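Researcher: I'm comparing several assemblies side by side, and this is the next one on my list. It has 320 residues spread over two chains. Same procedure as the others: predict the full complex and return the structure.
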Amino acid sequence: MYKVAVIGDSASVMGFASLGLSVFCETESRKVEKLIKRLAENEFAVIYITEPVAVAVRETIGKYRNSRLPSIVLIPAVKGNTGDGMRAVHESVEKAVGSDILKN
Amino acid sequence: MARLNVNPTRMELGKLKKKLQTARRGHKLLKDKCDELMRQFMILIKENRQLRSEVETAVKEADRYMAVAGSVVQREVLETALLLPKQEVELEVTEKNVMSVCIPEFKTKYKTGDSNDIYSYGTAFTSTDLDGAVSALSEVFPKMIRLAEVEKACQLMADEIEKTRRRVNALEHIMIPDYEETIKYITMKLSENERNTTVSLMKVKDMVLKQSHNYH
């Protein structure tokens, strides 16, 4: 059975704990990188990660981009939406089509 | 275009013609694959965008509730209330094959039978805003799972589309023209040889006739 993880600062991820997701309050990029690696090896199928944390570990996230599992999804943090999640969607479009045709 | 480095023989010509045929067929198939992938990708990416904006607004809303809840009661109270959940979510992962791209599909399973069993605390020490935050999150959770699914699918498909398009272009602009040119070169060379032989035969015939019968 696969599990779901949430990574981010404690204020943003606390709510998810009550839903029964595995919550990791971690914001330091080095530790988050290790954490993602560990989660990916340990049957976590989905990892939600807050945008500010995700920015710091972009490379590690990029590594899992083209593997089947885990699916790493950006979510906005308490401090507000930086638009990084949407940008990732546009990146996919750009990669597939050659130019961002959804931009408007 | 570069001509391939092969001997201009009939054997090679036959081989090349077969290769050209295969390349044309492969090109057509890959192009069809790319088109279909692109169609599916466009459908998915639209859903992805929609879902993402929905999830982002919902999470923001929940965060707002959470901020209010955090301001009403102490932080420690909030943490003790939340960090020992009753509920546990597990995922069942199956695979769907879309044009040879393996896309994961998630199915949520809750540990307790009731998926609404999410309030891990008594209501005595926490504010109602916390209830609001938790229920808002649980409402958006199915969408978040679907978002994870769709976003992964989009990423995998984008990768596959890129690869396929490269292959199509390589076949269309390099392999097929190369083969065509080489085939042309060999055909020319062979017919040239043939003419050469005919001419020298005619010449020899003339010489022989001249010698034996003194013809002019």
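Model: For your comparison table: The domain at 10-207 of chain B is CATH 1.10.287.3240 (Helix Hairpins).
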